[in-house]
Amino acid sequence: MASPGGREVTFSIVARDAATGDMGIAVSSCILAVGRAVPGARPGVGVVAVQARSRRGLGTAILDGLAAGGAPEDLVRRAAHSAEDADRQIAVLDPEGRVAADTGRGSFPVGGHLLGEGFSVQGNMLASDEVLPAMAHAFAGASGNLPDRLLAALTAGQDAGGDLRGRQSAALLVVSGAPAAAEDDGVRMDLRVDDSGDPVAQLRMLRNLQRAYDERDYEYLALFAPEGARELYAALAASRRGDREAARRALEAMRSRPGWSGWLSAMAGDARLSAVSQLLG
User: Fold this and answer.
1) Which phi and psi angles does 177 have, rounded to 5°?
2) What is the count of structural domains for the chain?
3) 177/270 same-domain check
4) Which one of 43, 62, 124, 161 is CB 3.0 to 4.6 Å from 175, fit for a cystine?
């Protein structure tokens, strides 16, 4: 999935969470918007990483092969025998945790891949031979859920040198091990940093923000949500801890903003704002 004449010089990890069945990929590179180029995933089907110089559409073709019942090892072997993909680097994971990877003979050194139980780390044009072992060790030893373990591996790879050329973008994509349905699209997380001086650190910040939204951590959101919404979360946080005066100040600050009084009236039936109103009595 490289751009014409270009290379996705990248380090990444694909992995499955044995407890939940979720599958994911984390990737970073010194190219713009690596999340558009390298990761591919379908709920209930699998996850792929397509790196180095691979033809466009290879990731989609591999996911189609998984959906048709193909095994990761067979699909990787088939791609490895394709002459036009001598510079390719791919990793494939299915919902059962079967994983396979290949690094083409034309991929930039330092590069390669390492397979583990339910995961694979891979990279090319790396800063050192320590990048991939550091990622594998970090993932295997990390606690928490799959996004956090994937980020631990990506962080370890960056700390070991990462991409030889520098840093620009990163992405984190996690999907369900079960097929998508009308009530659930199966996408558990899809975060991207397209252009940053420290994309892995920025990706961790986005992960923390997403966690705060998911867990309704109003204290965190009062500090790190977009500026225009911080008073709302400050009011909710104050309500949760029973701080009447702080809740009043936050609501007054919200009402002073153009348009917010009407929005608050429209949200009068929201259980969260109702709790604030009850506190203010």
Assistant:
1) -75, -10
2) 2
3) no
4) 43
Same domain, 137 and 161: yes
The pLDDT assigned to 273 comes to: 65
Question: In terms of C-beta density within 10 A (0-12 exposed, 13-18 middle, 19 or more buried), how is residue 245 classed?
Answer: exposed
Q: Which one of 189, 215, 241 terminates a domain?
A: 215
What's the CA gap between 269 and 159, in Å, rounded?
48
pLDDT 10s digits, 131-173: 999 999 999 999 999 999 999 999 999 999 887 777 999 999 9
- CB-CB contact of 179 with 40 (8 Å): no
Measure the CA–CA gap between 35 and 132, rounded to whole angstroms.
20
pLDDT in tens, 73-100: 999 998 887 656 567 899 999 999 999 9
Q: What is the C-alpha separation between 78 and 99, in angstroms, rounded?
A: 15
Residue 18 lies in a domain: yes
Q: Are residues 132 and 234 in the same domain?
A: no
Locate all alpha helices (DSSP H) within the chain, ordered by sequence. 34-37, 58-67, 72-80, 131-141, 146-159, 199-215, 218-224, 230-241, 244-255, 260-266, 271-280
* Residue 116 included in any domain: yes
Task: Tell whether 3 is covered by a domain.
Answer: no
CA distance 38 to 50: 5
Residue 88 is inside which H or E element, if any? strand 88-93
Sheet holding 46-52, edge to edge: 39-42, 46-52, 88-93, 99-103
Amino acid, single-letter form, for residue 18: A
Indicate whether 137 and 150 sit together in one domain: yes
Is the torsion defined by CA of 136, 137, 138, 144 positive or negative? Answer: positive
